[in-house]
Amino acid sequence: MEHSTTKITSIPELLGRYDRHLLGVRGLAGNTRALHRHVVRRLLCFCFPGGQVRWGNLHFCDCVAFLRKEFARLSSRETQKVWLMVLRSILRYLAQEGCITEGWEAALPKIPTYRLASLPRGLSEKRLGDLESACQGNKPRHQRYRALLLLCLRLGLRVGEIANLHLEDIDWRNGCLQIRSTKNHRERILPLPDDVGQALVAHLRMGRPRSKRVFEPLRPPFSAQRVYWHVVNSLHYLFGLAGITGRGTHSLRHTAATTMVSGGASFKAVADVLGHKSISTTLIYAKLDLKALAQVALPWPGGAR
């Protein structure tokens, strides 16, 4: 029988098999799988320019050369770490399939990670005021902007979670929301604050009665991917109206977490609201609890003079 390393396959065929593995075995969300496919496609096109994958011709040094080439154009340290993570994933998969020998992923270079080294970048009071002002108006888009803004700021929802919010996920009677996490598949129930509920009602009254998701574009298609980009583009446009540049929509989630920590919420409570799989992810906000830090800060030598 022919060994896997001697078989020839096409790049689209391999991408399809790998994507089914990411969905069926690892349960990754659509956006994460799209990133994996992008990295893997670039790797295969680099190693097999002709489009025909011959595993017997693939060597570990080819993977290193691919990384060296990609890192030359990807200056962001965080992006480089993500690409390394994806490449390790594909190498483990290929080893399981018998296409390459085991252990290649462990031999890849590592980028040092300094946990809790940087502060989360929340938004200032002025920026928040600018965003609030940009939501003022009676048009449907203004109601949509305000509902999106409050879901991010009051509940710290991810963009993917907002895009995946269905009408049946809103429990008006009991005042809560069911959040379908798109990152770690950990569903959670969050209380529905009055101002968020009122903003959602105002938005939905402006929308179409047959909508399945809370935030759907005006025209089809109404696929999950299209709804996701509708939410992303709406928030980006809101940032533009507010004159905020150089900041991503994730800064709203950082702002929500910072507000909760500064208000005295426990890190366990913050982790539950944000849907963090591990509380260690939430501990980065400990550096923003200035009152608690002041109690443990040591006096500066000679500062009492």
Describe this structure in a few short sentences.
With about 300 residues, the chain is mainly alpha-helical.
Q: Can you describe what's shown?
A:
It contains 14 helices and five strands. It has two domains: 4-107, DNA polymerase, domain 1, CATH 1.10.150; 125-291, Orthogonal Bundle (hpI Integrase, Chain A), CATH 1.10.443. It has helices spanning 11-24, 30-47, 60-73, 77-96, 104-107, 125-134, 140-155, 159-163, 194-206, 224-241, 250-262, 267-274, 279-282, 290-296; strands spanning 8-10, 52-54, 170-171, 176-179, 188-191. The chain is mainly alpha-helical. A hairpin with an 8-residue loop joins β4 and β5. The chain is elongated, with a radius of gyration of 23 Å. The strands form two sheets. A three-stranded antiparallel β-sheet has the order 3-4-5, with no helix packed on it.
